Amino acid sequence: MKPVLVIRHALTEGAGFFGTFLDQKSIPWCMICLDKGDALPLDMEGYSGLVMMGGPMSVNDDLPWIQQELELIREAMVLDLPVLGHCLGGQLISKALGARVVANPVKEIGWAQVKVVPDQYAFDLFGSANFESFHWHGETFELPQGAQHLLSSQYCKNQAYQIGSAIAFQCHIEMTEEMVETWCEGGADELLASMVSPAVQQAIEIKRDLKPRVANLNKVATHVYSQWIKSFK
Fold first, then answer.
1. Is residue 10 helix, strand or coil?
2. Which CATH number belongs to the domain containing residue 124 in this structure?
3. 19, 55, 72, 114: which could join 88 in a potential S-S bond, CB 3.0 to 4.6 Å?
4. pLDDT tens-digit series, residues 1-54
5. Which of 56, 54, 53, 41 is closest to 2 using CA atoms?
6. pTM for this entry
7. Measured between alpha carbons, how far is 75 from 190 in angstroms, rounded to an integer?
């Protein structure tokens, strides 16, 4: 089997639980670290799937790698390879397919419930009607034409969608305890500066009951990822 290509945009936003899941399933994968200056591949010929992780930048920034990454997304979808985007990764899928990425009405950081749309595909994908997910974003994607809406939250309408061979998430289902701790430490100033947002929790709340919260999210992610890998050819 060809490896799954995972693209990392920031040091602290790696494969997380998604990498753990692939290892548990003995699925080969490799990671391109743009934060270290790694070059993106010229095409998707050597890969069985494409996954984009998060990052603090905007897809609307003038960054040298964005156009090439958008081209890889479009190529993977033309080839009907499974594509998956987490937060920034989901926004990149939207941009690749001609949809806008814009400022969310409020910044959303911390734990919050997401609601699964009343649809059989969505229920089969998540295995539940709603669940608590992790969030850390100030922008949000619009749905590409023809996309199926999957998730929403109180403060962000578009939390996930499916289109063709791709699933895009605004929320972070890939979290580990270590990632949450690291983000709270590195994002301390942002948390304080964003206190006015009704959708921003402070570190003490984010880390409350962290182990069971992450364990519950990992269960949901396992369900999603298990459905996603069924698309491998």
1. coil
2. 3.40.50.880
3. 55
4. 999 999 999 999 999 999 999 999 999 999 999 999 999 999 999 999 999 999
5. 41
6. 0.97
7. 36
pLDDT at residue 32, as a whole number: 98
* Structural contact between residues 47 and 81, judged by C-beta atoms closer than 8 angstroms: yes
- Domain that includes residue 227, residue range: 4-231
Q: Which long-range contacts (CB under 8 A, 24 or more apart) does 27-32 make?
A: 27/1, 27/229, 28/1, 28/2, 28/3, 28/4, 29/3, 29/4, 29/5, 30/3, 30/4, 30/5, 30/6, 31/6, 31/7, 32/5, 32/6, 32/7, 32/8
**80 within 8 A of 165, measured Cβ to Cβ:** yes
Instruction: Provide the pairing of β-strand 101-116 with 130-141.
Output: antiparallel
Contacts 24+ apart (CB under 8 A), 34-39: 34/7, 34/8, 34/9, 34/65, 35/8, 35/9, 35/10, 35/11, 36/11
Rounded Cα distance, 229 and 83, in Å: 10
Specify the amino acid at residue 48. Answer: S
Strand boundaries in the chain, DSSP class E: 4-8, 29-33, 49-52, 83-86, 101-116, 130-141, 148-153, 156-163, 166-169
What pLDDT, on the 0 to 100 scale, is given for residue 233? 74
